């Protein structure tokens, strides 16, 4: 008696049969293919559908990988020569939509979540990602304990805290002549931008 018990303990857990595995699997059709029933037309059809689907999946995946490694690309270049060129359209993009130095405590209270500086509980979400000096300033501005919020206007906020071409344009020359911020006009979808 004791020898059998010891043999079972040494052997450990017995592997699960394919039918038991298939019946508990979430893979569609597997439970129908490897069922405890005898071989039937239903099982054969399920096996055929499963293998067909697997073949289609493998073909599509193989084709997509081969397509990726061909590195297809399209380059289209139209060159137009002009003797007289009008002042060109210039696009200046800044990933920082607002100047952090211009964001006030009231702005942070009303638009902190929109600016991704605060979460919905008025807390700083990722302190490890911020610069130490900016983090101190942000923590000071985000202290709303005795703060009484004032009315907030998004257009005024865009005008005040948005970027200004006079600050960003350091030098500009076109056809040998100096150009300035007055030669540019703001075209933007922002509510405070001039059209």
UniProtKB/TrEMBL annotation:
Read off the InterPro entries from this record. ENaC
Tell me the protein's name.
Acid-sensing ion channel 1
TM segments?
A: 44-62
Q: Which Gene3D superfamilies does the UniProt entry name for this protein?
A: acid-sensing ion channel 1 domain, YojJ-like
Q: Which Pfam families match?
A: ASC
Name the family the entry cites.
Answer: Belongs to the amiloride-sensitive sodium channel (TC 1.A.6) family.
What are the entry keywords? Disulfide bond, Ion channel, Ion transport, Membrane, Sodium, Sodium channel, Sodium transport, Transmembrane, Transmembrane helix, Transport
Any one Gene Ontology cellular component term annotated for this protein: plasma membrane
Could you state a single Gene Ontology molecular function term? Answer: ligand-gated sodium channel activity
Where it mainly occurs, coarsely classed, is: membrane
Protein's membrane topology: Multi-pass membrane protein
Protein location: Membrane
């Amino acid at each position: 008696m004791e020898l059998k018990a010891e043999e079972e303990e040494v052997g450990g857990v017995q592997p699960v049969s394919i039918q038991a595995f298939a019946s508990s699997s979430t893979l569609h059709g597997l439970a129908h293919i490897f069922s405890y029933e005898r071989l039937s037309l239903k099982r054969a059809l399920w096996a055929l559908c499963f293998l067909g689907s697997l073949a289609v999946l493998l073909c599509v995946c193989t084709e997509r990988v081969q397509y990726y490694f061909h590195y297809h690309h399209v380059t289209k270049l139209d060159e137009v020569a002009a003797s007289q060129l009008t002042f060109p359209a210039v696009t200046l993009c800044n990933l920082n939509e607002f100047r952090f130095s211009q964001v006030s405590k009231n702005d942070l209270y009303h638009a902190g979540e929109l600016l991704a500086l605060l979460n919905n509980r008025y807390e700083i979400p990722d302190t490890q990602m911020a610069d130490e000096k900016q983090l101190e300033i942000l923590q000071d501005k985000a202290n709303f304990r005795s703060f009484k919020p004032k009315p907030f206007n998004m257009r005024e906020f865009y005008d005040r805290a948005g970027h200004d071409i006079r600050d960003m344009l350091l030098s500009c020359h076109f056809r040998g002549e100096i150009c300035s911020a007055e030669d540019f006009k703001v075209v933007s979808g922002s509510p405070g931008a001039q059209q």
